[in-house]
Amino acid sequence: MGINHNVPYFNQENNVIEGWRSCGATSAAMCLKYFGVPDLGPMPQYEDDVKKRFDRL
Questions:
Q1: What is the predicted pLDDT for the residue at 25?
Q2: Cβ neighbours of residue 10 under 8 Å, at least 6 residues apart?
Q3: What is the rounded distance in angstroms from the CA atom of residue 31 to the CA atom of residue 8?
Q4: What confidence tens digit (pLDDT) does each residue in 9-50 have?
Q5: Where are the alpha helices (DSSP H) in 1-57?
Q6: Which pTM was predicted?
Q7: Cα gap 5→49, rounded to integer Å
Q8: Could you tell me which residue, 45 or 57, shows the higher pLDDT?
Q9: Is 39 in contact with 9 (CB distance < 8 Å)?
Q10: Domain ranges of the chain
Q11: How would you classify residue 36: left for phi > 0, otherwise alpha for psi between -120 and 50, otherwise beta?
Q12: To the nearest 10°, the Cα dihedral for 26, 51, 32, 23?
């Protein structure tokens, strides 16, 4: 019983870069894609581009 905004779903388990600890980047990627932010780089998946660009750990 919620509102469906058609936010895209990305599964973090198949991320190229450390899928086991990329929940934050994957969640951010879903929000960015929903709001129309274009691909950020050369990685094969949108969420991997987000993680590579913004993760500094």
A1: 87
A2: 26, 29, 30, 33, 45, 46, 47
A3: 8
A4: 998 888 887 777 788 889 999 999 999 999 878 888 888 888
A5: 23-34, 46-54
A6: 0.77
A7: 23
A8: 45
A9: no
A10: 12-54
A11: left
A12: 20
